C-alpha cells in the first residue's frame, strides 16, 4: 500500500485508531473541562475570565500528557501474554 495514503500511515486501520483516540480525548476534554469551566466559571462570573481561559487551556496540556503517558504504558500484542 502506498505510504502517502492516510497521512503517511501504511496501515489504514492504525490511522483510524489514531483518529478514534484523538476524537475521544477531545470529547473527554469538552465534557470534563470546557463545559464545566464555561458553565460554572464563565457564565456565573464567579472568577475572572482570564482564569477561566487559563484553566481551560491548561487542561488541554493535561489531557495530551495523560494520553501520551497512557499510550506509553499500554502495549498491545502477544508478547505481553507470555
Using brief descriptors, characterize the structure shown.
68% helix, 0% strand
Describe this structure in words.
The structure is a single chain. With 82 residues, the protein is mostly helical. It has one domain. 68% of the residues lie in helices and 0% in strands. The chain has two helices and no strands. The protein has helices at 12-42, 49-73. The longest helix is centred in the N-terminal third of the chain and has 31 residues, at 12-42. The protein is elongated, with a radius of gyration of 18 Å. It starts with 11 loop residues before the first helix and ends in a 9-residue tail after the last helix. 1% of the residues are buried. The model has no long low-confidence stretch (mean pLDDT 78).
Low-confidence stretches: none
Distance linking N and C termini: 32 Å
Biggest β-sheet strands, sense, barrel: none
Number of helices: 2
**Series of secondary-structure elements, N-terminal to C-terminal:** HH
How many β strands by DSSP? 0
> What percentage of residues falls in helices of 4 or more residues?
55-70%
Please tell me what the overall shape is: elongated
Share of residues in strands: under 5%
Structural class: mainly alpha
- The figure for the number of domains is 1
Can you give the mean pLDDT? 78
Q: Any idea what the radius of gyration is?
A: 18 Å
Q: What's the helix and strand layout?
A:
Blueprint: H1 12-42, H2 49-73
Amino acid at each position: 500500500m502506498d505510504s502517502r495514503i492516510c497521512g503517511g500511515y501504511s496501515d489504514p486501520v492504525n490511522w483510524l485508531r489514531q483518529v478514534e483516540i484523538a476524537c475521544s480525548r477531545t470529547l473527554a476534554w469538552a465534557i470534563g473541562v470546557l463545559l464545566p469551566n464555561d458553565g460554572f466559571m464563565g457564565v456565573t462570573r464567579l472568577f475572572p475570565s482570564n482564569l477561566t481561559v487559563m484553566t481551560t487551556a491548561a487542561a488541554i496540556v493535561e489531557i495530551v500528557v495523560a494520553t501520551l503517558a497512557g499510550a506509553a504504558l499500554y502495549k498491545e500484542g502477544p508478547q505481553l501474554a507470555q
